[in-house]
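Morning!

This is the sequence you dropped in the shared folder:
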Amino acid sequence: MRITSIVTIIVGSLLAVEQSSSFALLTPTKCAPTRSPTFLQVAGGTPKLSLDEEIKIQWDLFTKHQAKGKWRGTWTTLDYMGDIQDETTASVNLILDDESNSVEHTHDIVMGKIASDCETCYDSEDVRTIPVGKYTPGNMSKYRCASVAMCAGPSLMKSGAMSTELVLTHGNGRVRVVYQHAPVWEEGVEPGSCPPQALKLFRTMVSREMLDADAPPSREMEEKYPPARGNPTFFRGVPPFQWHKKWAGSSWTWGGQTGDRGWAIENLEEADAWHGRPTGDTSDVWAIRMPGGILLQCPRVITTGRAGICRLAWLPEDDAPEGSASDGETASLLRVEASVIALEPVIDEENDVMLGFYPPELGSLRCDVLTKFGELEDVSVMEKLKSMGEMGKNGGGELDPIEEFVASSDADSKKSGSESSSSNQNDGSDDEPLDDSGIDAIRNALKL
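The structure's back. Tokens below.
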């Protein structure tokens, strides 16, 4: 896959991109007086950020996109089959204290509601507040940010299960998903008689959350108070056609060896459009598609020596209505994916025995912020959807009985599935980039 533009993110600098063959040549522009200049290491590739630069970038992203107040939503717990097991009204509170430059993290859990007896009184809630942590620059626990996305984990729970949390933010709303994998053993092997042989998905929690709202988002609320442009509509119908468009924008990637980098995507290639393949590329991926343009994908089983790819894709907004004040603004697509490494053995080479496992770790993180800039050409979208199992053979819009999970708000419709795999880190083709792609998007993300 070709990269037509590349932006290396360095705190305190803005880069001007000059096209040179298939890669971009990076040249530093004027910096703010108090900021250090940027340099480009040509022979060995672009340099990795220093620790101080990385800490500043992570804190800027965290406070701009996540630590904005109280994110209230309905925490919906799904089992392996996609059935709803539990729903809890709660909020994730990330409160920034400017004086101490710290963020207080708590959870407000609604334990019950008390109805008022009089017409002029308000109902009350029995709320339990649970302290989670306090964060400062350089001390963000297991959180890592990438543009509008955030990943927490992978983390080990007290039960021995592994938790991986992904978040995408758009306007005053965000989508948060937590994948939980538990230790398993092969058939015929007594559980606990030897170290776990794999981690299998057993529970998923997904939450649509609104910032500083009196109640969690709902279909009734959106019908009564339609969200303004720039904010998501969580409970709208999204036809499968909406995923299959021409997309352009920017991509933020992080890896243990490469650090934080930014890429301009001028045209997302089909091979990297995993959001358009809800059933995935292999049978090892569990997936569920939910109302409001939300797609979840993660490994069914994670084993030693192979990274598991956890994904979240979201279509927060459609094209602006014709004749409206926002006429001309096109649909948005947000994607985040994290590679998870687990069950890596600790070997005593002297005695040739396994002592245990290393803690699970994040291998890489990627966030794509994309905008629609056209329709697919030289292809019948109807035939494409049929070939992917998105539509029935009669073209009526219904799903074929293929191996896929499709969730509705009341969990009435579901099917069992085979889904996606790992993705490429580089995107691009020859179309002209959007105005908000590349450097502009990175500037906005970093407040530079």
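Headline: The radius of gyration is 23 Å.

More detail when I'm at my desk.
O.
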